[in-house]
Design a protein that fits this description.
Rossmann fold, TIM Barrel, 35 strands, six-stranded mixed β-sheet, 867 residues, eight-stranded parallel barrel
Amino acid sequence: MTPENDLRGRHGARRAIAVAVGRYRDPAFPALASPVEDAKAMERVLTDEDLGGFDSVRLLLDPSRAEAEVSIYEFFANADPDDFLFAYFSGHGFVDEHNRYFLVMADSDPRRAPLTAISAEWLADCLHGCPAGRVVVVLDCCYAGRFLASIRPRGDVERVVIVSTSAVQLAHEGAPGPAGPKPSVFGAAFFDGIASGAADFDGNGWTSVREAFDHAVEKVRTSGHEQTPKMAGTVTGDFWLSRSPRRTSGLPQEVANLVNSPNPRARLAVVDELVALLTEGGGVETAAAEAALVALRADQDEQVRLASRRALAGRSVAASLEPVSTASADPYWYRKAVFYEIRVRSFADGDGDGVGDLRGLTRRLDYLQWTGVDCLVLSSIFDSPLRDDGYDVSDFTAIHPGLGTIGDLVELVDEAHRRRMRVVLDLVVNHTSDHHRWFQESRAGREGPYADFYVWRDTAESDDLNLPASETASAQWRYDPRRRQYYWHRFQPHSPDLNFDNPAVQESMLKVVRYWLELGVDGFRLVAAPFLYEREGDGEGLSETHDYIRRIREEIDKVYPGRILITEVGSEPRGAAGYFGGPDEGRECHVVQYDSLVPRLLLAMSQENHTPLSEVLRQAPPLRPDCQWGLFLRNGNELSLTGIDQEARDRLLRAYAPSPGMRTSLGIRRRLAALLDNDRAHLELAFSLLLSMPGAPFIYYGDEIAMGDNLALSGNQSVRTPMQWTPDRNAGFSASEPERLALPVIMDSVYGYQATNVEAQRRSRSLLRFLRRLIEVRRLNPAFAEGEFRLVTTTNAAVLAFVRVHEGAHVLCVTNFSRHPQAARLDLRGYLGSIPTELLGGGRFLRVEEAMYPLTLSGHGYYWLSL
């Protein structure tokens, strides 16, 4: 939908209401000056024909509870499906002795809150029952974060709820000025960003609710107040709240003429002049130059878009181009994100040649936004001879021609950002392809700038770099007849290891990082990062390796704030935690995935005993606020079993890979659904754990619809088959002839695309809809992403229980690993008197009356319970 159509309310009405209470009869509630100013600010912005253009805006100033309830009920109930509603509440919030949350009205009595104030549950019911297709609710009140627990998602409508504080914070008034009272800290930031156009981060001439929120978050953060706004909801696109005022004044006339020229060459030429104004101009010129560059970033001409992107990269204005401002009050977005891992070659074919590509992926972004994922992790897309699925890179600054162009990537990133999603690229840092120009120059002779880019020696007789077969069977020295020396490769002979002892190699890889960050990508997953340096022994995780990762992190923190580094480590949590770095040594990766979790989870399932999983969870050390674990059930490689003992390995192979064709030298080459026999209860249990355990979940493409594998394909190709979109030819993946597909689609009776596809699962009570619901509930409950993790003692070894705790919110997660119903008692002595409430369905359980709380679960059952 275009913003213009959206601002016309999809042919429906655009209505708003503001409930502002600053005067109270009961002295327990101090008088407030800002709420009335908040309401007036909202009215000015939304009724302005050049901005919000709302059909009606009603102000309720200091209403009684009865007056407010009637007006609020009618506002929500008397709506049509095409309407766009905006509701703003400013005033005191109150929590009674039973931990219930209320909005305080003029006649509210704290001793009789249920009778005199508006309860969060009642307001949530109004929101839930409202027939309008799109609704935005903003609560600028103390403790407003408590309202988020009352929200119940509806899949047929779109809702956004914004709260100006967490569940335990106060909302702050604006400091009075010479002209009198001012709007609140949050209200002023929210509406000023719309009125000034400063919230129009992408420069497209329109301000969305998300942009207004992001602008307000940054302003609240810099105000110095302890106040953390939050936003939750379910949307399939942007809520276009208003137009943005044009910000073209301030440029010299000749520069403005070039910016607005119909000639793309003129617009390309003006980029350098705008950059000069950014560094040399005054305040007005600098702001106008920034606005012009932001506008050119969305230019129709590809060269103009790329030039303006590079001009903005690294500058403070570049931060505001991200889905959430990279300089925002929430720099830890990745802690709350749900990641989605994509093999681009297998996801969607945009040009009909049988190979997935970036354009095809861009066309499927609406689906990904619908599922609720926040960040896309793309398999290696760089130019490559494709002997190792693209991870043998021949040019780090070019995209493989079969996948598209740099312009296609820029379009993908832009479109993802418009949908509030991010894009992270896989970057191999350990080695290159032997086709890479660096290696061709290096093997040409022992002199020259690239002679020492790789690890060379005269003989392979020394075994100081030889590795045990359990680490990698292919690591060895290989003779190159042209240079007449041996080069080292840890992985494949066609992938020689870079020599990071050479400062030129270090700087060259930093240039690669800068290059793609300048084009707008949101970070990298550093592939094979633990193996950068070669020393005696296996060389994994050397101090020199950590030093170099810290150097990359310093560059990102300094020039590209808000971008992230991810790495995968084949060790237990204690060892993997070293890749976060530390405040004394320096920070390293933002997100660390550790391989040992999945085998332990599968062991727990096969043994019907939680101990293998709870032991590894217990080992995970506490993390700093800027760190997060990365959790996954499967990915595009084999399920490695090298980190477990032989007895456990044999048990897993018997249970999950009984046939030799299902195995590799390191583990198992099967997809998640095939590992779990396509059992719906098993799959739901696995995903419920993935989204509730401490860490950020990574979902491998196709697992959300229980795609299967093709064991007739070699190696890990078995789990890299085309995404199954529809029951049509080629599973809707490609319009090419079937024989031209790079990999065949799955056609068997269980996992074949005719039965297993996105189109069918979007219409039914499917695994896809179940997972989407889990993601929604996870987003509405920040304890899952950011909460402290506490194991809970149970009397049944088949039942795992733990609590996630965050800002006063407590969520109890209980899982039954047995196929049979199980009864257990949980040690909830710290929660006596609480009433567990199921988050997925809203059911209320018996009050916790005794320390050991009795609970019964169905076979492979689970609960997410709010305490």
